[in-house]
Amino acid sequence: MSLSTSFIDRIGVLYRSFMQHDAGQTDRIKRYRNIEPDSAYYIAMMIRIQQSKKILEIGTSTGYSTLWMADAALVTGAQITTIEIEPSRSAQAQGYAKELDLAQCIEFWIGDAQEFLQQDQQHYDLILLDAERDAYVSYWPDLQRLLNPKGGVLIVDNVISHAAEVKGFISKVKQDSRFMCNTIAFGAGLFIVTYKS
């Protein structure tokens, strides 16, 4: 049903093509900058363990992490909302989701993440933050409002590979006594946040 051989094979091919694209780009913004496979696998496990129902992804890019989460969402009955400011990248992700028969559990939202976060009123069981890191501090008030206070988990990517860029955000989270958090060394580093109670 999920994590089929066909899914694993296709997601592997996609990741290699994304990496090949990035290797040919000197401009960081033009790179796809997808999450690493072991981080994606870990998040897919988290969705299954948590039995997530509402998932938010900030930073779709070409959909590599979205596809991993959607494969898990089919198991838990979850719905994913994924945000991407670049229409062409969202279109790529939508194409892959249709190809892998995962589109039914994904809502693709195109636009500025700050705008979405400020107007959204839902609670999410799992939020994956993998976007422009200089915006994370400004996202934080809305992220804590949208995170389900009963077991919701926020996962932030690239916190080891780009430690200096997320230092202020991590410091702000750690100063809030309502939360417990930890960094784990998967991929480029994942920062995990949840309410204490």
From TrEMBL:
One Pfam family named in its UniProt record: Methyltransf_3
Entry keyword annotation includes Protein biosynthesis: no
Molecular-function annotations in GO: O-methyltransferase activity
Tree of life domain: Bacteria
Methyltransferase among keywords: yes
GO terms, biological process: methylation
Annotated keywords: Methyltransferase, S-adenosyl-L-methionine, Transferase
Entry-linked Gene3D superfamilies: Vaccinia Virus protein VP39
Name of the protein in its database record: O-methyltransferase
